[in-house]
Design a protein that fits this description.
With about 350 residues, the chain is α+β, with helices and mostly antiparallel strands. Helix content is about 30%, strand content about 20%. It has a single domain, classed as Catalase HpII,  Chain A, domain 1 (Beta Barrel). The termini are far apart. The model is unreliable at about 155-180 (pLDDT under 50).
Length: about 350
């Protein structure tokens, strides 16, 4: 099906959405306060535990058709990038609590009209495992966030047990050819972080069109890790150790893909829990991300990635404006929680103008 064009009226905010977003911010701030009290340091309210902090390049594919040659991808060129891989929880847990993962990408040297408040020539894409966001909407985000927030004070063993139940459910569902986004969210397999695919889960403007994005492993070395599984009882920081060991020896390559919006009914903008059928609109490659061999966890770099630099949907070109209920919430929630974290740690937030400002 041909892609549908973007227009401002495709978004339909629900009544009371701002009050809902304010509630999300209050709830996640309380969760962050609980974690800070225990860890004696304020960490990200999601994706707190990094597994690799790397730099590389994003190369836009040559000869893209008009519907894909949009925004950042309008012309074939290469951009520097910084990429942070992390575990999902908003606290520093052992890897036996294996939930969803994140891959946050910051592209440098991106000229063009930005969203209000964004100044530097950067474009962030914040991705996670799973093609959908289970909560679906800002209201669902508030509901599910309240449950997650209450769990912040629970012992790690209880969280590990929940993850194990969800992981086993996920395994059974996969055996029957189906899946559960919620089961994957709370119980992702013990797979290698560089063998996973990552997705925007919610849509973004794609120039004159709309798309969801995905980053898919695209090297023989990564494909060889398809059956790799961590023994969490042997190493509670095993995902980090595995990622660091990988980058010590090999390059990681991801195909960055766009799934264009083609059917307003089957590909809703406002409900991120609905998987957009690939039969209607497949993911198509628009760029390649190459992350060369490097020290993926040097102390100064990690401190910069974890405590100074931020990745957020609001760091965006107007041409890639985040869309839908969940994304509108993220535009405000990420900013508020980042301000809390930096204030509590006494660290000034900094958006680097170029990749050369990132410590080696």
């Amino acid at each position: 099906m041909p892609p549908l064009r973007y227009s401002p009226d495709i978004e339909r905010p629900a009544p009371g959405e701002q009050e809902t977003i304010d509630g999300i911010i209050r709830g996640m701030t309380r969760q962050s306060e609980t974690v800070e009290t225990r860890e004696h340091h304020a960490v990200r309210a999601s994706h707190a535990k990094s597994s690799a902090c790397v730099v590389g390049e994003l190369t836009v594919a040559e000869g893209l058709p008009e519907e894909l040659a949009q925004g950042l991808f309008a012309g074939a060129r290469t951009y520097p990038v910084a990429v942070r891989f992390a575990q999902g929880p908003g606290e520093t847990l052992g890897d036996r609590v294996s939930t969803h993962r994140g891959m946050a990408i910051k592209v440098f040297g991106v000229a063009g009209e930005k969203l209000p408040g964004h100044v530097e020539d950067t474009q962030d894409f914040v991705l996670a495992t799973g093609t959908t966001f289970p909560s679906g909407t800002a209201a669902g985000f508030l509901r599910d966030g309240a449950v997650i927030g209450k769990s912040a004070g629970l012992p790690e063993g209880a969280k590990s047990a929940v993850a194990a139940v969800a992981r086993n459910l996920n395994r059974v569902l996969h055996a029957f050819g189906t899946e559960s986004a919620m089961a994957d969210f709370f119980g992702h397999p013990f797979s290698h972080p560089l063998a996973d695919s990552y997705f925007s889960q919610a849509p973004v403007r794609f120039g004159d069109y709309v798309a969801k994005l995905g980053a898919v492993p695209d090297s023989a070395a990564q494909r060889a890790l398809a059956e790799w599984r961590l023994d969490p009882h042997a190493d509670e920081d095993g995902f980090r150790h595995a990622a660091v060991a990988y980058f010590r020896e090999s390059e990681a390559v991801f195909a960055l893909k766009a799934q264009l919006w083609s059917d307003a009914e089957k590909q809703p903008i406002e409900d991120a829990s609905v998987d957009w059928p690939v039969a209607i609109s497949p993911y198509r490659t628009v760029a390649t991300i190459r992350l060369p061999r490097q020290d993926a966890y040097g102390p100064e770099r990690v401190r910069y990635f974890d405590d100074v630099m931020t990745f957020r949907p609001a760091h965006s070109l107007t041409a890639h404006r985040p869309l839908g209920s969940v994304m509108r919430a993220r535009l405000q929630v990420y900013a508020a929680l980042s301000a809390f974290r930096h204030r509590e740690n006494g660290v000034a937030e900094k958006e680097p103008a170029g990749v050369e400002q990132i410590p080696a």
